[in-house]
Design brief:
mainly alpha
Amino acid sequence: MTRDWTPLAFVYLLLAVAGLIGTWWFNVFAIVQTADFIGDLVTSGPAVSSITVDLLVAATAGSVFMIVEARRLRMRFGWLYVAGAALTAFAFTFPLFLAMRQRRMTRIARATS
């Protein structure tokens, strides 16, 4: 079971957990306050708009990478990481994908040696 879990895969997995907890902590806080989440992202000034564009571009590039890399490594359900980002957070699904990618690459390396 843990044979394919390298230290790097565990680091990615810990980052995924931190991304999930960190983003959802603030999402729940915004929901409790009935904040306009989308409106706050685009109308709270240039700094917030800048970081929003920054993260959207990075998430888009990361999503393309996840789909291409999942196909290259023949990982099943690669698209699910991108779809999951819309339901949870890209800060969760991207490091989770990297952990699963690391496991897959370890498995392939062991099979070819």
